Amino acid sequence: MNIINILEEIEKVDGEVYERLNPRRAAMKSFFNMGKKISLAAMPLALGSMFQKAYGQSTLPSGVVDVLNFALSLEYLEYHFYNHALLGTDVTFTYPTAAAKTAITTIRDHEKAHVDLLVGALGSSARTPIAYADTDFRAGGTFANVYTDYNTFLAVAQGFEDTGVRAYKGQAGNLLGSPVLQTALQIHSVEARHASHIRQMRTAAGSTVYKPWVSLGASGQANDSGVAAVDAVYAGEDLTVQAGANIVGIGGFSGITKAAAVESFDEPLDKASVVTIANLFLQPGKKLS
Amino acid sequence: MTMKNNELETKSELQEKSLFDKTVGRRSFLQYAGAGAAGIALVAAGCSKDRGYDNPTMSGATLDFKDDFGVLNYAYALEQLEAAFYIKVANSNTQFTGTNAAAKKAYFQDIQFHEIAHREFFKAALGTAAIGSLEVDFSSIDFTSEASVLSAAMAFEDLGVAAYNGAGPRLKTGTYLLLAGKIVSVEARHAAYVRDIISNGSFADLNSLTSLGANNASGLDAALTPDKVLAAASKYIKTKINVINL
C-alpha cells in the first residue's frame, strides 16, 4: 500500500494538499482506518473518492478532466479487448500455453484496475462507461479474425499497447504540475511492460521476430509491426533527433545505428491521432470526438 | 554565511551540534535524517546559496534539484550507471544459455546501445551543466554468471522505471517531461523483457515491485523519490553523490 507515498508525491506538486485535507480530517481519519481493513481490490475506489474529497470536483481543472476521460476511454477499450478474448463465446482460437492465457489475464486485470482508478479519480466527471457492445474489435472487417486467429489477436493487442504508451506520453505535458501526473506516469510504464510482453508473445507464436521495443520496420519504415493496417499507430516512431541532438552515432558510438536510435526513444502521439485509431474499434454513435 | 565544506557524510556528522546549528534548521534536519543512506552524502537543505563549489578538495558529483537541470543530471547519472553495466556485460562475454541464448545476447547488445544513447543524449543536452563521469562499482555482480547478470539487469531496469516515474513530477518544463517519458517507456520495455527471461510472465508483476512504489491493485508501476533511488543504487556507485535541494 503506497497511499502515504502518493500523499507525499502530491505534496511535492501541491504543497497545500494537507491543508486541503485538513478541514476534512475526520474523513481522512476514517479513510486511513478503513485502509487497514479494506480489501486491496477496493482500494482504487477509496483512493479516488479521497482525492475527490480533497480537491472537490469543481477544482479539478477541466483540462485534467479531459485528459483523464481520454485515458479512461482507452482503458475501457483495452479492458474489453482482453476481457472478451478471455470470456467471449465467439472466441475460437486457443491459447498455445497456460502462460499465454495467464499473461492476457494479467494485462486484462491491469486495464480493469486503470479503469477503476480513473473512474474513482473523476467521480461524477467520469465519462459514460464503454460497454463491450459499444466496441468493434474487428474494426469493420479489417481484423475480421481477431477472435478466431491468435496471431491476429496478438497483432491487434500490440497495436493497442503501443498506442497506449504513445497516448499517455502525448498527454503528459497537459498534466505538468498536476497531482495526477505521477499516477499517469505509473500507468504509462505499465502499458510499456505490456507492450514488451505482447511483442514477445507474437515472436513466440510465429516465425517473425518482434523486438520488445519499437524498432524500424523491415523496409526501414516507422511501423515495425508487420501489419500495414496499423501504420497510424507507429507514425513518427522513427524519429532520430531528440531535442536537437542527432541520436544516430551520438558521442561517436557507431553502434548506435538508426534502428538503435529509433528503439532508444518512444515517441508520443497527439490526441487527434489516438482518437482516429481508437475510433476504428468503436461502433458508430460511440466514437470519440 | 560562508563555509568551506557543507558535505555531511554520515548521520553522526549530521548530528554534530556545531555543524548542525550552522547549516540547517531542525525541521530540515528531520526531513533529511530519514533519507540518509550509506554511500550517499546528503547535503543539508537551505545552504545552496552559500555552497563553496570552488572548494578544490571537493570531490564527487552534486545533484542540485532546485531546477530541471538537477533532475536531468540525476537521469544522466542513472543512465551512466546502466550503460556502464551493459558495456561490462558485453566486455565480459557473459555466456547466455538456453535455446534463446543468441536472442538474449543480441537483445542485451540492443539494450547496451539504448543506454549509451540515453547517456550521450543527456550529456549533450546538459552541455556545461552536466555532472562528470561517475565511477561505478560492480564488484557485487558476477559477470561470468548469467543469473547474476540477469538479476542485476532486472534491478537496474526496475529501478530506472521507478526513478523516472518518481522524478517526472519534479520537472517544470514540458519538453523535459516529454523526453523523460520517451525514455522511461523504453526502460519499462527492457524491464519487462529481462523479467520475462528470468521468469516468463513476470513482465509486470507489480506485487514484486511494491518496495519500489508499485501498487498492483491500482495497476500502477514503480515510482520512487530520488533519495530512495540513489540509496538503492549507491552500492554500484563509487563516486560520492551529493544531493541538495531535494
Counted up, domains of chain A total: 2
CATH homologous group name of the largest domain in chain A: Ferritin, core subunit, four-helix bundle
Mean pLDDT of chain A: 88
Proportion of beta-strand residues of chain B:
under 5%
Rg estimate of chain A, integer Å: 20 Å
CATH topology tier name of the largest domain in chain B: Ferritin
Q: Which overall shape of chain B is indicated by the principal axes computed on the Cα atoms?
A: globular
Would you summarize the structure shown here?
The complex is a heterodimer of chains A (289) and B (246). With 289 residues, chain A is mainly α.
Molecular structure report:
The complex is a heterodimer of chains A (289) and B (246). With 289 residues, chain A is an all-alpha fold. Chain A has two domains: 58 residues, no CATH class; 163 residues, Up-down Bundle (Ferritin). In chain A, strands 1-2 form a two-stranded antiparallel sheet. About 8% of the residues of chain A have low confidence. Chain B has 246 residues and is mainly alpha-helical. Chain B folds into two domains: 48 residues, no CATH class; 171 residues, Ferritin. Chain B contains eight helices and three strands; from the N terminus they run αααββαααααβ. Chain B has a three-stranded parallel beta sheet with strand order 1-3-2. In chain B, helix 4 runs antiparallel to helix 5 and helix 5 runs antiparallel to helix 7. The N terminus of chain B is likely disordered. Chains A and B meet through helix 1, helix 4, helix 6, helix 7 and helix 8 of A and helix 5, helix 6 and helix 7 of B. Chain A: InterPro entries: Ferritin-like_SF. Chain A: This is Ferritin-like domain-containing protein.
